[in-house]
Amino acid sequence: MALLEIQGVTRRFGDFTAVDNVSLAIEAGEFFTLLGPSGCGKTTLLRMIAGFDVPDGGRIRLDGEDLVNRAPESRPVRTVFQSYALFPHMTVDGNIAFPLKMARTPSAEIRGKVAAALEDVRLSGFGRRYPHELSGGQRQRVAIARALITHPAVLLLDEPLAALDAKLREDMQVELINLQKEVGITFVYVTHDQTEALALSHRIAVMNRGQVEQLDEPSRIYGFPRTRFVADFIGHCNLLSGPVVANADGIVSVDVAGLGPVRVAARSTMAPGRPGTIALRPEKIRIQAAAPMDTPDNHFRGTVADLLYMGDVTVYRVDTPGGGKVEALLANSASGRAKFFEVGDAVEMSWPVAAGHFIEE
Amino acid sequence: MPARSRERLGKWLVSGPPLAYLLVFFAIPTLIMVLASFRTPGEFGGLAPLVDDAGTLDLNVESYARFLAEPVYAEVFLKSVWYALLTTLLCLALAYPLAALIAKSPKKYRDLLLLLVILPFWSNFLIRVYAWMIILGPQAALARGVNGILGWFGHEPVPLLFSSFAVLVCLVYVHLPFMVLPLYANLEKHDQALLDAAQDLGADAWQRFWRITFPLSLPGVYAGAALVFIPALGIFAIPDILGGPEDSLIGNLIKQQFLETRDWPFGSVLSIVLTVAALALAALAALIGRRSAGGGGPERA
What we know:
The complex is a heterodimer of chains A (361) and B (301). With 361 residues, chain A is an alpha+beta fold. Chain A is 23% helix and 35% strand. In chain A, strand 17 (313-319) and strand 18 (325-331) form a beta hairpin. Chain A is elongated. In chain B, 27% of the residues are buried. With 301 residues, chain B is an all-alpha fold. Helices cover 73% and strands 0% of the residues of chain B. The chains are: A alpha+beta (361), B mainly alpha (301). Chain A binds chain B through residues 50-52, 71-74, 77-79, 81, 83, 85-91, 98-99, 102-103, 130-133, 146-147, 150, and chain B through 191, 193-194, 196-204, 207, 211-212, 215-216, 293-298, 300-301.
């Protein structure tokens, strides 16, 4: 049995359905992420797990026990808020000791536990400082230490890294992974940042308009998006749509406007004439100046219309003669020069049938 | 003109008029009062000449000696402090829930509710005090009702008007908005996320108030307490109109010295003692405030 079971949970605000019949089962010790754009219902779902919001329908069970009628203060669930919500009038020690005091822990025990918690988040010696005397990353670590000190069954994290700058965010991601491994507590993590979700999670639930679009491991979410929304939301993706023109021997052909027939390996029963989409990651496209020596499954010519030089890689936007647009990405490392192509260069693009992923819609 | 001296001139042009105003109407009168406290009362009131017929400078501490020698003055003084303190505490007890209610109510109603709080200011202070004379008068429904109930228990009827009760009720009524406004200004800024966090970490409603909301509202409490305590300490109109003979406060005494007894030096002494006491108490409150806010009250962040 899963540790945290969410069954058919629905939450409406007037005419707006924020969370629409969502069911999830989160295992003990899992790093689980709710990923989606703002307004997709991920934060509402998190608030219902914490108890700040009450579902209009459905059940939330923890260890088999229904949580819906328990007040937030009596749920074995803790939250790390986006704003950290550290108490400004208490020291770091006071903040971390707060949940222990609420649980009426003897003060002799509190001192030892707080010191140990500070050590866990590498903040020993900061106990007597006030929150405004700390950096963003340090505040974040205090918030996590405060939430973990009573060993909750589940830790909820609401976009905890959103307020940090990019470099610090990366460091904190590594720290979060290690911390979660160390304490073994189930993390339910809410974010709109797909790279963060891919880097941190054991499993990701991609949410859109109150519903779970796909629930999978990060590599499967990225490699095998089930819907156009997931393909588009997670990373960059060429979505090549059109009517299916052939489907035989595990190869589906889609007639894409501006390109022509594009072939993709797929086990699909879709009959010709129905619309389909091929999701094709930019880095899976081979892009070169000369025509390929072999005979690739898919081969198109085009002209570089725009390029985005990003240091390690360059993204090329290629226009095909038929008016199609394809995004291709090339690592700059091997070239010995800054980038391979310039705007206006004629290029040859090719990819095997296995590079794309067929979506039936 | 160089930019820097032009900037300096601008500063003086902006801050000069209010400074001059305070100098002429506050600092200089205060100095005159301090000087008057060391002089001798005149034969027909006011002040005796500074230099007497013999040509000696007539400055003495007799009025101060009188204040210290006769315990009745210290008693009136302590009674005034007690009334002001009681007024402050009652205002706090009434204003806190009110300010919290307004701060928690939907944004569109807040301005209206605040307007209702300050609405009494639209009518004259004395008229509002006289209104209490009618409300508390012996023929009014309130006094009849109270005495009716007391009669049931075989108690003698009590007068509501011309009593310390009447003085206190009116003191609280008049000063309540001065407590509500700073408290509201503080409570309105509180971050709901802090209360959510406290609840998430296991705090029940009472603990959330006592450990989060109240300590964070202390700057508002101190501001409101100062705004109520200091004027309440020097008030004379309310005890004059609503109080009995026992309810004379330091403000009444000062007024009496200047307008009736016409002993200006002694009136000055009483005023100075009042001012010094108010300043000392305000300083004490600020000190306590700073200490209890620790190193990291939000106002210092």
